[in-house]
Specification:
Layout (H helix, E strand, L loop, with lengths): L1 E3 L12 E3 L6 H4 L9 H12 L17 H12 L6 H21 L9 H27 L6 H10 L1 H16 L1 H6 L1 E4 L5 E5 H17 L1 H15 L3 H5 L4 H21 L5 E5 L5 H4 L6 E5 L3
Antiparallel strand pairs: 1-2, 3-4, 5-6
Length: about 300
């Protein structure tokens, strides 16, 4: 067996693939992949976490999926702070959607070039939609005279979820709209390019948008429920300064639960039957299915 790249023990992210020698002894032809504890697998995991699968370029750390939790948790804590003012609501929604926009763009399908103007248009649309939805919901809650102050405070804590979930859909579509216009590359079972498909692009964006609805559900729904119960405990009532650290830990735990759950809904390299794609693509290959990079 030969490895392409540097020695696996170095865990170097330049390691790209494994290939078995053609010919040689029977032992070579019957070679198997190394065990799960082999350093080669650690190198492969590091490579997949750092490099974009289409460009093989490093993704800036705050915008990697592996960096989503440490860099996103402070923003979630800010979104769930009680007694939000109009200014704080606008700020945290802007920061959240700015981070989401960069994550969506950095982890998009990059088989087709995307001009900077598309990024700017998508970013502005995503941020404006998020802020508008969040501010609108907060105004409606504040004008609901039937709510008691305690009920109004509880409802306001749940406002970030519908605002973020709906804005996340807008964010994904706007940041990756170029894929719908240009299509994305689809590959056969041997990794050969079959063509560029707009139908596959629609599937990719739909699957990604669904993950962005599931992702904030545990993050923005569970912490308010947990914190409403913890705030009644004698410990936090006697030590109100612990509220923010405790809320941060609760949000971190919810984020750690939600991200793997949402990402696992659809594989990054998704599969689709060629019969569902454009006729010219279906005629260009004998494979029953093709694969494409859904993005994350």
């Amino acid at each position: 067996m030969q490895t392409v790249g540097e020695h696996p023990a170095c865990l170097c992210p330049t390691l790209t693939t494994i290939r078995f020698t053609d010919g040689g002894t029977e032992a070579h032809r019957q070679s198997t992949l190394p065990s799960a504890t082999h350093p080669l697998w650690s190198a492969q995991k590091i490579k997949q976490a750092i490099l974009h699968p289409d460009t093989n370029e490093k993704i800036f750390m705050p915008f990697r999926m592996s960096g989503y939790i440490p860099f996103g948790t402070p923003i979630v804590v800010g979104l769930l702070l009680p007694n939000q003012t109009l200014a704080s609501t606008v700020f945290w929604q802007w920061l959240n959607q700015s981070h989401n926009a960069c994550v969506n763009y950095a982890n998009r399908n990059a088989t087709k070039p995307s001009p900077a103007s598309k990024f700017i248009q998508g970013y502005l649309g995503a941020v404006i939609s998020a802020v508008s939805i969040a501010v609108g919901l907060n105004v409606l809650v504040q004008k609901a005279n039937k709510f008691t102050p305690a009920t109004r405070l509880l409802v306001q804590r749940f406002v970030p979820f519908p605002a973020v979930a709906s804005a996340n859909i807008c964010n994904v579509v706007l940041m990756r709209y170029g894929e719908l216009e240009e299509g994305i590359d689809v590959l056969d079972g041997d990794g050969n390019l079959v063509g560029s498909s707009k139908i596959a692009a629609r599937h990719a964006l739909l699957e990604t948008a669904l993950t962005r609805v599931v992702l904030p559900m545990p993050i923005l729904v569970l912490p308010p429920i947990v914190m409403s119960m913890l705030e009644k405990t004698a410990l936090l009532q006697a030590r109100p300064r612990l509220l923010l650290p405790v809320q941060s830990l609760v949000c971190l735990a919810a984020f750690g639960l939600a991200l793997p759950l949402a990402i696992s809904l659809f594989p990054q390299m998704s599969e689709i039957e060629t019969s569902q794609l454009e006729p010219e693509i279906a005629q260009a290959t004998s494979s029953r299915t093709v694969v494409y990079n859904k993005g994350l």
